[in-house]
Design a protein that fits this description.
By secondary structure, this protein is α/β, with parallel strands linked by helices. Helix content is 32%, strand content 28%.
Length: 201
Amino acid sequence: MLQPAVQLALRSMDYGEGPVLGPLSLNVAADETLAVLGPSGVGKTTLMRIIAGLETRFSGARTVNGRLAMVFQEPTLLPWRTAADNLAITTGASPEAIRAALNEVDLDGLAGRFPSQLSVGQQRRLALARAFAARPDILLMDEPFVSLDEALADEMLALFERLRAARKLATVLITHSSAEARRLATRIVRLEGRPATLHGL
C-alpha cells in the first residue's frame, strides 16, 4: 500500500491570541484531489502553510512524501523577469522543458514577455505552468481561481483539469466555492469552528 502523500496530525495552531486551528488529522493519498472548504478567516491558508512547511509554529506532526509545488491566490510572478525566466529560475527547467510548459498552457510565443505585458488570464496560466514545471508529487493550491470572472474561472478550471489528467499527483485545493470543490475534488472536507477543525462532507 502506498504511503499518503501528506500526513498531518495537528494538536493546535496558536498565534498567541488563542488557538486558530484545533485538533485535526489530515491524510492525502498520492493520486487524490482534496478540497478544503471554509469561510474567509477560518484558517484555511494557515492550514495550507503548515502543509507546505512555511508555518512551523504549530503543535503536532507533519509528514510530506514527495516534492511540493504551490499556486497562490495571486500569481506571485517575478515582475522583472520574462515568462521563460519565471519558469527557469524557480524550477531549474531546461529551455526545452520551458517551451513545452508554456505550450501546454497556450502561452507559446510569449516566452519573452514580462508579467506586466500579460493579461490576468495569461498570468494565471503562467503560475500554473510554473507549478507543474517543477514536476511536483504534491500540488498545493490556495484559492488560485478567486476573483476571476465566470468565463475566465471556467477556462482556468478546465486548464487545471487538463494538466492534472496528464500526471499522477496529490492535490490539496483551498477554496470557498462549493461548485469549484465539487468539480475538481475527489474528496471534500470543511474547515469550521473556533478553533477550526476538519469535518468530512
